[in-house]
């Protein structure tokens, strides 16, 4: 539970090394930001935002990032950035200006930088319209929020995370509605997590 951590980076690192992921406590306003982005995306009835490169027509202009998606990115970026800086021993210095803001631009396209970890990116997936193979992320940290809809049952597709250093059946399926953080290949202090 990242927000309750008092000892800083050592406790977070220990959780990543042992459990493979951290559940981040969020308040009602933060959860509302995440849920709003998922609700807006569900109306699109597609697998991924932004669309898979090449799926859009070549003549189409780059899409403006919808405000709920921009707010979602800003929140997730803030969580990942804070966690990475704390675990690196650099404190909780998160940039004052969010990388998207409410301007309809994509991440890091507005004034207010420089931002740490500015190669961060953002995707929203709807597994009713596709699926991903298990994989390990290349980046530093991954932050994920997933929530099933009222009509979905426990048998629907869900996120599975492989605990570090475990053989089959070392997979766990965290509950829906939690914000999770785990290490990618770019984070040397903890094993990258297959999911």
UniProtKB/TrEMBL annotation:
Superkingdom of the organism of origin: Eukaryota
Give the protein's recorded name: Fe2OG dioxygenase domain-containing protein
Source species: Symbiodinium pilosum
